[in-house]
Amino acid sequence: MERIRIKHEFEPVYDKNSRILILGSLPSVKSREQSFYYGHPQNRFWRVISSLCKSPLPETTEDKKLLLLSNRIAVWDVIAECDISGSSDASIRNVTPTQLSLILDNADIRRIFLNGSKAFDIYERWQKPITGREAVKLPSTSPANAAWSFEKLLKAWSVILDDLK
């Protein structure tokens, strides 16, 4: 399995009103092609968020940013740079973490959520010692997490609503 060095190329989405921070591991190949988060057509992230926020499914990058910001949701990833094969989280090596202080120092983040086990593990190892903040692991919205139906994901992810009120 050949790995290549990937550098996260796009900015986090947040503003001073953001109340929760959702972190993934690293953008997939499809997301990197689109230069925005959760770009794989089978990733259920946007369906989950739009359903929970009772909003139409966003189509464009601008619509996605508006959906997040209007619902006080910040989005970024835990990895700034790493070696990876394709989009496989299992292949990730040589991690350089993102600087979460960029968001945490500039928004009133009440809780941090991790989209999937790999993101959670990296947060626990690299980010938590710096932030000192507990985080909640949520099931991955990735198509690779086929064991979780959309309905089951929606129920698990509904915990984000508590901090958005």
What does this structure look like?
- It is a single chain.
- The protein has 165 residues and is α/β, with parallel strands linked by helices.
- It has a single domain, classed as Uracil-DNA glycosylase-like domain (Uracil-DNA Glycosylase, subunit E, 3-Layer(aba) Sandwich).
- 31% of the residues lie in helices and 21% in strands.
- It contains six helices and seven strands.
- Strands 3-2-6-7 form a four-stranded parallel sheet.
- It is globular.
Summarize the structure in short.
By secondary structure, the chain is of the alpha/beta class.
Keywords:
alpha/beta; Uracil-DNA Glycosylase, subunit E; 4-stranded parallel beta sheet
CATH topology: Uracil-DNA Glycosylase, subunit E
**In terms of per-residue confidence, which ranges show pLDDT below 50 for 5 or more consecutive residues?**
none
Number of DSSP E strands: 7
The CATH class is identified as Alpha Beta
Relative strand content: 15-25%
Spatial extent as radius of gyration: 15 Å
* Annotation field: number of helices: 6
Q: Helical residue percent? A: 25-40%
User: Number of domains in the coordinates?
Assistant: 1
Average pLDDT score: 95
- Apparent shape: globular
Please provide the ordered H/E string of secondary-structure elements. Answer: EEHHHEEEHEHEH
Ends: how far apart? 45 Å
Strand order of the largest sheet: 3-2-6-7
